[in-house]
Write a structure and sequence with these properties.
Layout (H helix, E strand, L loop, with lengths): L1 H26 L14 E4 L5 H10 L4 E5 L4 E4 L2 E2 L7 E2 L2 E2 L2 E2 L6 E12 L2 E12 L11 E3 L2 E2 L2 H11 L1
Antiparallel strand pairs: 1-9, 2-3, 3-8, 4-8, 5-11, 6-7, 8-9, 9-10
Helix pairs in contact: 2-3
Length: about 160
């Protein structure tokens, strides 16, 4: 009789120990703190026609153009997988740790170049997803909000205007 009670007690204790552990692991996903503020852009005055230079720089950097209108002064690209670092953007933190320092965070980047009134402005859109391994090998992704620090935009702007 005591063997049955001991086995049942052990099974119950194992369940009671596993439940808090599973809950604490799952709670990590709910501690996401999204960054606040606006993304920085890069802007510069231009004296010559840089529309074709901008298109060329984007294409040579591996971006696919999704929209290009010289009269409107607008160029947009599709998203490209790129390793965005904390110096490039803020995509939030969990438990004080930066998501961009975790190799389970996948990032993509798209650019928009606006040419108006003898100025050029480069904007970016960063998409990030954190995909921790779940129980049984399943992954539950968390879409992250990212705010650019302007570094990637300035790099592209320098390629265009040099």
């Amino acid at each position: 009789m005591t063997d049955i009670i001991n086995n049942e007690t052990r099974a119950t204790m194992k369940k009671l120990l596993i439940l808090p552990l599973a809950l604490s692991i799952a709670s990590c996903a709910f501690t996401y703190k999204a960054p606040t503020g606006q993304s920085e852009t890069a802007k510069s005055s231009i004296s010559t026609d840089v529309f074709s230079k901008a298109k060329r720089s984007l294409i040579l950097s591996g971006y696919k153009l999704t929209y290009s209108d010289k009269l409107e002064g607008l160029i947009s690209t599709d998203y490209k997988v790129i390793d965005v670092k904390p110096k490039h953007a803020d995509c939030g933190k969990t438990l004080g740790l930066d998501y961009l320092k975790d190799n389970r965070t996948k990032t993509e980047l798209a650019f928009t170049v606006i040419l108006q009134n003898k100025t050029i402005e480069v904007k970016s859109d960063i998409k990030a997803e954190y995909r921790p391994s779940g129980i049984g090998g399943t992954a539950q992704g968390i879409n992250l909000t990212c705010i650019s620090k302007g570094v990637l935009e300035k790099d592209l702007l320098n390629k265009i205007v040099r």
